[in-house]
Design goal:
By secondary structure, the chain is mostly helical. The chain has three helices and two strands.
Length: 92
């Protein structure tokens, strides 16, 4: 997440990232404006939250079923809010 953010900020405010004398970034990593950077950061945050929840489920000991449900619901709510903001909050 930090690498994607730093590459995006560099592309926005300093210049293009060049590898071997040519623009060597993949298409999905090209940042044209601040909304592109926010979309990448939101995607990475959703991925980190989901992976953290899956790790918690894997190490789950079988106690406090409701706590696991609340954690999953909270993560789903945050991911849904980030997705809704990314899709509808751009002000096209």
């Amino acid at each position: 997440t930090l690498l994607i953010t730093s590459i995006g900020l560099y592309e926005l405010f300093v210049g293009e990232v060049e590898v071997g004398g040519k623009h060597g970034l993949p298409h999905w990593l090209e940042i044209r404006d601040l909304n592109d950077l926010k979309a990448r950061i939101f995607s990475m945050l959703a991925l980190v939250a989901t992976v953290s929840f899956v790790e918690r489920v894997e190490t789950y000991g079988g106690r406090h079923d409701l706590d696991l449900l609340y954690l999953g619901g909270g993560i789903a709510l945050v991911v849904s809010a980030l997705t809704a903001y990314q899709r509808f909050g751009r002000g096209h």
